[in-house]
Amino acid sequence: MNTYPSRPVVLCLSGHDPSGGAGLQADIEALLAQGCHAAPTVTALTVQDTVNVSDFRVLDRAWVMAQAQAVIADLPVAAVKLGMLGSVEMVDTVVELMQQLPGIPLVCDPVLRAGGGGSLGKDDVGYAMRERLLPIAAIATPNLPEARILAELPEGTADECAEKLSPFCRHLLITGGHGDETDIHNRLYVRDGDSHTFTCVRLPGSYHGSGCTLASTLAGRLALGEELVSAVRSALDYTWRTLRDAEQPGRGQYVPRRLPLDFSQ
């Protein structure tokens, strides 16, 4: 039997997307592409396709806790990635779990809306994430609409949202692409006031699962030991390539191609 060195393990707490474009499948594919091992813990079940989400059900807190604790007891978790939580109770569950993983980087993707606009949690979920999860996260990765929800600034710019959220988190990556600008500006804000802007060319079309791809890739890069700013750059570059090569398997948005068609590549 061939044996290989263990790949870094990333614990993923996310929802299940039956279309395969976002959620845990996106996490698994993106982490495989980074050379990491995904340990997927299901937080919610959704009814969705590549167009939009029509319904969801958050799993029982005890079931989610049992899944994650089984992983923590058995595998050396090197990073944690959060996706859809869907309820305040699930936010509390993550806080409790992270107490068992001191020093492990947490990447918080505040999934509050589906790409088609459908809600993935009540309004109080965003508030709970801001107050309880952002302070313990290594980095949060909202897109601009999600940043506005977290900051309670419905028309806020990225800079205005970052100013409001800076007391809550060490690093904040607000991704662009929700306007009509030719180039997309992704902005990384650091609590000490430093900032970095990463620019990429806008691609045509809309995409299902780009935020999940970015956050899980970033968690993988951190699990591999990459420094945070460099890891952000690596994750953004990889995500852009998955969107450039995206496919349209259904009637709605394009799905990032996170893995090569030929695994010998």
Automatic annotation (TrEMBL):
Q: What is its EC number?
A: 2.7.1.49
Biological or metabolic pathway of the protein:
Cofactor biosynthesis; thiamine diphosphate biosynthesis
Q: Which UniProt keywords apply?
A: Kinase, Transferase
Which part of the chain is the Pyridoxamine kinase/Phosphomethylpyrimidine kinase domain? Answer: 17-253
Q: Which Pfam families match?
A: Phos_pyr_kin (PF08543)
Q: Which SUPFAM superfamilies match?
A: Ribokinase-like (SSF53613)
Upper lineage is: Bacteria, Pseudomonadati, Pseudomonadota, Gammaproteobacteria, Pseudomonadales
Give the organism, scientific name: Pseudomonas fluvialis
> In its keyword annotation, does this UniProt entry include Kinase?
yes
GO cellular component annotations, sorted alphabetically? cytosol
The name this protein goes by in its record? hydroxymethylpyrimidine kinase
> Which InterPro entries does this chain map to?
HMP/HMP-P_kinase_dom, PM/HMP-P_kinase-1, Ribokinase-like
Name one molecular function that GO assigns to this entry. Answer: phosphomethylpyrimidine kinase activity
Example GO biological process: thiamine diphosphate biosynthetic process
Q: Does the keyword Transferase apply?
A: yes
